[in-house]
Amino acid sequence: MTFHLHRDEFIGIANSSISEFHNTKVELHLPESPLYESASVYCSFSSKGVVVEFIVSDFHLPLVYISTDNPDDVHDTCSKGGVPIERLEPKWYVCLRDWN
User: Fold this and answer.
1) Averaged pLDDT score across all residues of the chain
2) Which of 50, 61, 69, 89 is least surrounded by Cβ atoms within 10 Å, i.e. has the fewest?
3) The whole model's pTM is what?
4) Average pLDDT of 61-79?
5) pLDDT tens sequence across 30-53
6) What is the 3-class SS of 44-96, one letter each residue?
7) How do strand 63-66 and strand 38-43 relate by DSSP bridges?
8) How far apart are CA 82 and CA 80, in angstroms?
9) How far apart are CA 43 and CA 60, in angstroms?
10) H/E element holding 3?
């Protein structure tokens, strides 16, 4: 629901974060925002895809942007072991973290 209410803001954050990530090539922790509790940007080494992960209100259900739009290509999507459970639109997913 939060994604749909603030879609343009999340897309803007993801786009600017990816640009910054490409300049640094290291995992980035995004600044605090009223839209999310925490967020980070990282690269999937298996596919070279870029992932932006937002913890909005539930640690176990992060909102995730996947640059490849193929979660099977991204080994460490959804906090290294989780799985996408809902596709909101191209490149945007809700994931379920691995409980183990």
Assistant:
1) 84
2) 89
3) 0.85
4) 78
5) 999 999 999 999 887 666 788 899
6) CCCCCCEEEEEECCCCCCCEEEECCCCHHHCCCHHHHHCEEEEEEECCEEEEE
7) unpaired
8) 6
9) 20
10) helix 2-5
